[in-house]
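[Discussion] Sanity-checking designs against the backbone

I'm trying to build intuition for which residues belong where. Below is a structure token string of 71 positions. I'd appreciate it if someone posts a full sequence so I can compare it with mine line by line.
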């Protein structure tokens, strides 16, 4: 269920989604899209890049848009 999905989230993304009220948008994504977004966040080589990616994903989710393209 949703509780399980929420615990699978990295701490920083979970916090960003909560702060921006974007959890519902994130929950609306397909499993594939969430997996892609998480892989993209995890691929960031620096903490700065990672936090920017987390912010981007949260911002898109808050608007109900898929965070594409991942770059």
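Best answer:
Here's mine. Compare freely.
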């Amino acid at each position: 269920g949703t509780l399980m999905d929420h615990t699978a989230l990295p701490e920083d993304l979970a916090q960003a989604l909560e702060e921006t009220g974007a959890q519902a948008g994130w929950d609306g994504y397909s499993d594939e899209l969430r997996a892609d977004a998480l892989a993209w966040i995890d691929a960031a080589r620096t903490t700065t890049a990672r936090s920017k990616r987390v912010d981007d994903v949260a911002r898109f989710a808050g608007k109900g848009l898929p965070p594409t393209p991942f770059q």
